[in-house]
Amino acid sequence: xxxxxxxxxxxxxxxxxxxxxxxxxxxxxxxxxxxxxxxxxxxxxxxxxxxxxxxxxxxxxxxxxxxxxxxxxxxxxxxxxxxxxxxxxxxxxxxxxxxxxxxxxxxxxxxxxxxxxxxxxxxxxxx
Length: 127
Prior knowledge:
The protein is 20% helix and 27% strand. The chain has 2 helices and 6 strands. The protein has a 6-stranded mixed β-sheet, with helices on one face. Helix 1 (47-64) packs parallel to helix 2. The mean pLDDT is 97.
């Protein structure tokens, strides 16, 4: 069964997509960027602040599906400058237990929506 997941605690989609789609026990989130869901403003003060808001937005989408970061089995990280990798990684690491961390890819791209510096999506499974 396909269920659309939406929450006001994460940014509304900026195009023809949903925050997440739940198929049976598997959740596929759309990429999250550093938009404050309360103001709809971008928060680009620093790469650490930006990454923290991205993770907070993902956390809100997971919660709307009754999941947490413990349910995440795969992440995709898109960044516009690989020089920011270690800073992004240090914030990201605060959300996962290293021993049970999800699979992941990190890819440098030319541009991201709204010209942000980082976008992250996850796949989570209810177990």
